[in-house]
Amino acid sequence: MTLFRDDLNDTIAQIQVSTIRQFDEEVSAIPDMVKLTLGEPDFNTPEHVKAAAKEAIDQNFSHYTGMAGLLELRQAAANFQAKKYGNHYDPEDQVLVTVGATEAIATALTTICNPGDAIIIPSPIFPAYIPIIQEARATPLFMDTGVNDFVITPKMVDDFIAAHPDEHFKGIVLNYPNNPTGVTYVADEVKALAACFKRHNLWVVSDEIYSELTYGSDHVSIANYLPDETILINGLSKSHAMTGWRIGFLFASKELTAQMKKVHQYFVTAATTIAQKAGIEALANGMDDALPMRAEYQKRRDFVYKVMNGLGFKIARPTGAFYIFAKIPAGYEQDSMAFCKDLARKNHLAIIPGTGFGAEGEGYVRLSYAASMEKLQKAMDRLTAYIHDPANQH
Question: Organism's domain of life (predicted)?
Fold first, then answer.
């Protein structure tokens, strides 16, 4: 028998596996389960992108690329940012190709965090940022955005920093369109936040992976207003339904990119060559591949929003991504984990407890509408049956 040694990195030992993944695995064992749990587009990768990958395989593109990724892909990514969002980056030394946005997050935060630094985490938020900060011996400090329907304002940031006078604030994580709330920002809001972050000398780790999925207005990147202090994260997972291809991007100043490149090198060496070849095709010839998906997501959002509103769920209307973040109606179990487990057990519908996105998410649930209308209709029927059952009311 092998004895487990307990002399591991103590920070790692304290990190928990994502509640989202744990809950998804737990409910997957229940028969006839309708799952609206993970942020996974239900669309397939566009055919022209798959064809480019097949061609790359046939042409034996099976060797390492340079650490920063193929220059042609970095050029395509820089061009995409310039045309879509007005951000201008030199592909030679201001763009890194990463193994998905997740590795981009890890590389960015590892690069800027020193032990003792504090990073502002607007919460509720996708949890991936938090362990990376902790692994760097920095401190994530959670700013509750629920008090303002999940919209960050400069005053909220000013007040939060003033309330922690002994902390050395190094940066802030900005994720928009937001997971889990679906909230995003218009130009005036982004400009005001940029001025605030500049005033406080903060690095901004801006995760804009859902930038192509906005409803009612185009995405505005904070890098427009704060180019030197912004570490911009994006990728192909959501815009081109390429989650499994694992292609992300980091955009930053030349000086910062040189430092992040070192972290990236020792984390992963380089992203997969075949996936990079597919990425070139996606960005060069599929600039608007997200548009038909976005139109369908908006229909789904409107449907789910209407049904859940009618059932008494309070929802800050999502203007991006593909999530509904809803307050559990009064008179029902307010412990979000208990609510979701009960719903899964009784009505075979799986949605994510709000606590999966931080303590500030308690009393809420997240639903992904990246699913077919048929599946969403079945889900809403099951949720309606659960809410209308007097046995579930407290």
Answer: Bacteria
Q: Evaluate the omega torsion of the peptide bond into residue 41 and state whether it is cis, within 30 degrees of 0.
A: no
Residues 81 and 128 in one domain: yes
Q: Mean pLDDT lowest for which of 8-12, 189-193, 197-201, 251-255?
A: 8-12
Mark which of 285, 301, 322 sits at the end of a domain.
285
Q: Say if residue 108's pLDDT is above 90.
A: yes
Mean pLDDT of 147-152: 97
The gap from C-alpha 31 to its chain's centroid, in whole angstroms, comes to 29
Q: Write the DSSP symbol of residue 313.
A: -
Cα torsion 371, 377, 378, 381: sign: positive
Q: In terms of DSSP bridges, do strands 34-35 and 349-350 run parallel, antiparallel, or are they unpaired?
A: parallel
Domain containing 246: what range?
47-285
Establish whether the linkage from the previous residue to 154 is cis, with ω within 30° of 0: no
The reply to whether 199 and 280 lie within a common domain is yes
Residues 334 and 255 in one domain: no
- Contacts of residue 230, defined as CB under 8 A and 6 or more positions apart, other chains included, come to 204, 206, 221, 222, 223, 252
Q: pTM of the entire structure?
A: 0.96
Q: Under 8 Å CB-to-CB from 150, ≥6 apart: which residues? A: 124, 178, 181, 183, 316, 325
pLDDT tens digits along 85-100: 999 999 999 999 999 9
What is the structure's pLDDT at 8?
A: 82
Question: Nearest CA to 248 among 110, 99, 107?
Answer: 99
| Tally of domains in the chain | 2
Boundary of a domain, candidates 285, 312, 345: 285
349 in the same domain as 325: yes
Inter-helix orientation angle 373-388/336-347, to 10°: 110
Instruction: Taking residues 111-126, report their average pLDDT.
Output: 98
Please indicate, yes or no, if residue 3 is contained in any of the structural domains.
Answer: no
Using one digit for the tens of pLDDT, what is the confidence trace for 245-273?
Answer: 999 999 999 999 999 999 999 999 999 99
* Same structural domain, 91 and 207: yes
Write down how long the chain is: 394
